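Inputs:
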Amino acid sequence: MPELPEVETVVRSLRPMVVGQTIHEMWYDWPRTLHSPSPDIFAARVRGQKVHDVTRRAKYIILHLDHDFLLVHLKMTGRLYVLEAGAVVPDDRWIHVRFQLDKGSSLCFSDSRKFGRIYLASQVEHVVKGIGPEPLEADFTPEVFFQRLNSRDRALKPLLLDQAFVAGVGNIYADEALFRSGLHPLRRSGTLGRDDAYRLYGAVRDALSAGISHEGASINWYRKPDGTRGNSQDHFFVYGRDGQPCHTCQATIEKIRVGQRGTHFCPRCQPAHKGSAS
DNA sequence: CGGACAACCTGGCGGC
DNA sequence: TGCCGCCAGGTTGTCC
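Outputs:
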């Protein structure tokens, strides 16, 4: 579910609520959510540690503690939010982990599909391994992107979804970025010229930035930590718009399968290329 | 290296 | 209303 914009929105919302608070106790009812260390060790080790910052790397939410990093990956349906003491308890039967904070407040991890994972590690790198560049960071330049694209020969859609290639892009923003670039999802990465690559570079960054400015997309499960919805879904060009007219050219948006993932594109704005398989 | 597919899980929705 | 199959924002491991 959550991609870079959604995770970034959660991080920004959570940071002022949990920084400075201490984790006093941990409760859980689905052991597999606690990836590592094992639940009993996890609980003992996290107890008493204070939260100093909340940041993001790729789609991981990172809580900086006294001696460790607490990492949360929301996967498809995970939610992370703070419940203040005395607050109206939400009707949420999918809470699987709770961290008791100061003055009766708690940090809740809810996840209906139970794909989400929580880690406790002394180094972020022990958990986040082999991840590609952050697309919104300064060291990610259009020339670097061009070189990376040309060093591979893969359809653009699955390549953008590959976290080792570029961090944080998921199914929604991959489709949105490809539309913004005018490139077909099946176009082979090795066939891109410098101009194409630079255009895609800008499109990826613009799509992600727009997602952040709209506080993420709430299509189904995603909610901001305060329980409200993001608005990014109201600004999509192609995702979920199959059968509807393209905002740019009025052609009908199509949906195909690429690498087992639903893929939306405009057949007129993103024409097939001799270098693509369709 | 790239592609296909199964797993991990549950809920919502469309179709009959 | 009930049941069934399909779909879903992610990632990992296996096999070819």
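Remarks. Residues 1-3, 6, 59, 73-77, 113, 115-117, 161, 163, 170-173, 217, 219-222, 239, 262 of chain A lie near DNA strand C (CB under 10 Å from a C1'). The CA atoms of residues 70 and 174 of chain A lie 28 Å apart.
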